[in-house]
């Protein structure tokens, strides 16, 4: 095996295909989008070079700022609601409850189901007339709380955040569960001998040792929220009146419906930069933690 | 040995990746055009052709057997070949969206076929401006024109010249559940005031009067397009949308106010803003909501397997406004799908002959197939056609004119301005005045 690793030609030979694919489907499109984002272009014919005007316009575009705000709401609720919930589930299940595997599977099911199916499911839950949610509220005498969940400007964003959080709780739970399972049993045994309760074990042993996984989960949760598209598109199409518009849905509308390729590309580049920035911040946060 | 085997495996995997990536790029760059026409061209007796042999290429979009017009196209071309054996039609079909790209590219490169299917209005304008399409006025006699319905040429006429022929049309109409109207002793409304009364009456009895999907905004636009038409009249709407006028004219505000009034009265279902088109159609199909204003294709939906309102539906145009300029027989929609002839074709006579033959017969065949309302005056046995479609055809045969749907006539960005502000008006988050201001921003 040593021989193979020292053979530069072999390394190049084997890495070349994936390098080419990565370049073709990720790097080249990013570079092209960056170029398009400097154009005023309708997608046909020739674009007109306008420099950074698209970016300047972005920051005075109410719809865009609103969509960024909404994406950030997705990210924040994902970090502060979804992840703690996943962590709690992972801790409880890995503690060795009955039917451990069964629960892991059940919580993971929403991740496997197609987003469109989940969207349809939640649309039925939210349906103003026969939706389970309103029927339940009416049945327990809280009929005045029944709302047009997806149809009113006040609730549409919240109503689309919930399914997204719900869908991926199982995903983060599985990551953390696997992480906990890979922690050496000796550590837990030692804690047990010292008389640490489950809560204390979790607080002082499991969670600190889980830090690398938490970083991964946090990154996925934040970047995933900033890129969220499918569920929002199925549930509300970003409406009503942009109340639940996120950057990706706005971008698709800008490019493919309004035919503003340049302006839409600028949004795409903004999302890429935003994701990298937050990824870098998360990395930094965890690094300084380690020093302490 | 084991080590060698794994090395070999790696090499094979590596090669597979390279080959597959090469394969992919090859597939993408080649603009594959499948000549499907050849195999399906019907047999022609070539022995007794006194005239010169002519071959015409015909590009169109009806190549998929699932298309409602597929059979009609095949039949019309086969009939044409029987009647004119010396003109050979060579078909080439492409799927609708890909076709749009292909035809634009071919027009830009001046490589259009002799005959091709296209769309009227904004879509074909660039081709006509660059002189790629034959103006067919010299080939169209009045007898032929008189066999078309009013408005059949509206969307294919540019600067007073006709550049294409249409065969089928679609229009907006108010679908009413007769049974529900009778049950509540109400008349189907013909004027806006009557509509308001009907809405109030249904509301008073706990029936939601009309359905719409606020999520698929074009369904709201169906209503507003019709209301703007009844308020301002066809010519004014068209010229304003083409930016030769102003949305600030009182007619548009009138339409917006009336639309807001309907919303205010609770004419549409609660929570409609969150419903998709399919969801909002259901109560209508179940016979719970008496009225739906949408495109003529709704006739097909009414006779869907799970529909409970078969044979209970009648259609009328949108109720007229007492203070409006649009008449009873002014409709939204129109004939958009068309056939055009290349300006540089070598066989202008043969191509226009085929164009007219094709469109006139397509009008009949696609009507029989239930795909379009006929844009020509056709005589067919209507007993086998969807009765609502027949009723619609009668309605449109008296049409004084058609005004294209706003989202078809407007360009991409303006369409979005229109749809998004209409949704806000529907939600009541902007006033009719603010709505008009937003529309006017298209002019900036």
Describe this structure in words.
- The complex is a heterodimer of chains A (292) and B (444).
- Chain A is mainly alpha-helical and 292 residues long.
- The longest helix of chain A is centred in the first third of the chain and has 33 residues.
- A two-stranded antiparallel sheet of chain A has the order 1-2.
- Chain A has 14 helices and 2 strands, in the order H-H-E-E-H-H-H-H-H-H-H-H-H-H-H-H.
- The relative contact order of chain A is 0.14.
- Chain A has one domain: MetI-like fold.
- In chain B, strands 7, 8, 9, 10, 11, 13 and 14 form a 7-stranded mixed β-sheet that branches. Chain B has a 5-stranded mixed β-sheet with strand order 2-1-3-12-6. A two-stranded antiparallel ribbon of chain B has the order 4-5.
- Chain B is of the alpha/beta class and 444 residues long.
- Chain B folds into 2 domains: 175 residues, 3-Layer(aba) Sandwich (D-Maltodextrin-Binding Protein, domain 2); 205 residues, D-Maltodextrin-Binding Protein, domain 2 (3-Layer(aba) Sandwich), CATH 3.40.190.
- The chains are: A mainly alpha (292), B alpha/beta (444).
Briefly, what is this?
With 292 residues, chain A is mainly alpha-helical.
How does the major sheet of chain A shape up? 2 strands, antiparallel
Distance between the termini of chain A: 39 Å
Taking all residues together, what is the mean pLDDT of chain B?
Answer: 84
Mean pLDDT of chain A: 87
The fold-level CATH name of the largest domain in chain B is: D-Maltodextrin-Binding Protein, domain 2
Shape of chain A: flat
Count of distinct structural domains of chain A: 1
Shape of chain B from CA axes? globular
Q: Approximately what portion of the residues of chain B adopt beta-strand conformation? A: 5-15%
Question: What value does the Rg of chain A take, in angstroms?
Answer: 23 Å
CATH class term of chain A:
Mainly Alpha
The domain count of chain B comes to: 2
């Amino acid at each position: 095996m040593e021989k193979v690793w020292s053979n530069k030609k072999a390394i190049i030979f084997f890495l070349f295909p994936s390098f080419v694919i990565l370049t073709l489907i990720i790097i080249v499109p990013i570079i092209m989008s960056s170029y398009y984002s400097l154009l005023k272009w309708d997608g046909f014919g020739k674009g007109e070079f306008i420099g950074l005007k698209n970016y300047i316009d972005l920051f005075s575009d109410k719809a865009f700022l609103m969509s960024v705000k909404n994406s950030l709401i997705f990210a924040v609720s994902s970090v502060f609601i979804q992840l703690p919930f996943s962590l709690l589930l992972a801790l409880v299940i890995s503690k060795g409850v009955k039917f451990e595997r069964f629960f892991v599977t059940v919580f993971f099911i929403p991740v496997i189901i197609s987003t469109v199916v989940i969207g349809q499911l939640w649309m039925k839950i939210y349906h103003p007339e026969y939706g389970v949610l309103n029927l339940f509220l009416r049945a327990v005498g809280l009929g005045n709380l029944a709302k047009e969940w997806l149809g009113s400007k006040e609730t549409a964003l919240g109503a689309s955040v919930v399914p997204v959080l719900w869908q991926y709780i199982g995903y983060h739970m599985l990551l953390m569960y696997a992480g906990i399972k890979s922690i050496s049993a000796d550590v837990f045994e030692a804690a047990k001998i010292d008389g640490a309760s489950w809560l204390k074990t979790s607080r002082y042993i499991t969670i600190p040792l889980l830090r690398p996984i938490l970083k991964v989960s946090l990154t996925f949760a934040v970047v995933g929220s900033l890129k969220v598209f499918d569920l929002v598109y199925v549930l509300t199409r970003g409406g009503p009146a942009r109340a639940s518009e996120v950057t990706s849905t706005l971008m698709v509308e800008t490019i493919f419906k309004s035919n503003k390729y340049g302006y839409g590309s600028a949004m795409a580049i903004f999302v890429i930069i935003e994701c990298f920035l937050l990824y870098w911040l998360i990395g930094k946060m965890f690094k300084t933690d380690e020093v302490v | 040995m084991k080590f060698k085997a794994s090395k070999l495996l790696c090499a094979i995997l590596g090669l597979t990746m390279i080959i597959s990536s090469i394969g992919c790029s090859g597939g993408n760059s080649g603009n594959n055009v499948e000549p499907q026409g050849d195999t399906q061209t019907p047999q022609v007796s070539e022995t007794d052709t006194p005239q010169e042999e002519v071959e015409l290429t015909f590009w169109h979009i009806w190549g998929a057997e699932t298309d409602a017009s597929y059979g009609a196209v095949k039949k019309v071309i086969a009939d044409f070949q029987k009647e004119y054996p010396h003109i050979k039609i060579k078909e080439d079909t492409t799927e609708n969206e890909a076709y749009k790209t292909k035809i634009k590219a071919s027009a830009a490169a001046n490589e259009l076929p002799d005959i091709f299917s296209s769309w009227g209005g904004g879509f074909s304008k660039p081709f006509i401006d660059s002189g790629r399409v034959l103006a067919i006025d010299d080939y169209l006699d009045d007898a032929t024109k008189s066999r078309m319905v009013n408005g059949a040429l509206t969307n294919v006429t540019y600067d007073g010249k006709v550049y294409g022929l249409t065969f089928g049309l679609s229009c907006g109409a108010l679908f009413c559940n007769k049974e529900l109207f009778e049950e509540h002793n109400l008349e189907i409304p013909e004027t806006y005031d009557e509509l308001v009364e009907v809405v109030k009456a249904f509301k008073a009895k706990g029936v939601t009067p009309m359905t719409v999907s606020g999520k698929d905004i074009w369904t709201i636009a169906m209503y507003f397009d019709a209301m703007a038409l009844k308020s301002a009249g066809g010519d004014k709407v068209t010229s304003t949308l083409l930016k030769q006028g102003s949305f600030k004219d009182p007619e548009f505000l009138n339409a917006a106010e009336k639309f807001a009034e309907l919303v205010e009265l609770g004419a549409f279902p609660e929570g409609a803003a969150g419903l998709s088109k399919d969801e909002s159609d259901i109560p209508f199909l179940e016979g719970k909501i008496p009225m739906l204003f949408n495109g003529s294709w709704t006739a097909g939906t009414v006779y869907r397997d799970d529909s409970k309102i078969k044979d209970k539906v009648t259609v009328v145009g949108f109720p007229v406004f007492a203070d409006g300029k649009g008449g009873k027989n002014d409709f939204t929609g129109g004939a958009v799908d068309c056939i055009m002839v290349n300006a540089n074709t070598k066989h202008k006579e043969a191509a226009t002959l085929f164009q007219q033959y094709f469109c006139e017969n397509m009008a009949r065949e696609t009507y029989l197939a239930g795909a379009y309302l006929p844009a020509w005056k056709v005589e067919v046995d209507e007993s086998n056609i969807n009765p609502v479609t027949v009723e619609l055809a009668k309605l449109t045969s008296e049409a004084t004119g058609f005004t294209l749907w706003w989202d078809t006539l407007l360009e991409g960005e303006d369409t979005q301005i229109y749809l998004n502000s209409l949704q806000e008006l529907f939600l009541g988050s902007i006033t009719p005045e603010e709505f008009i201001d937003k529309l006017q921003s298209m002019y900036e």
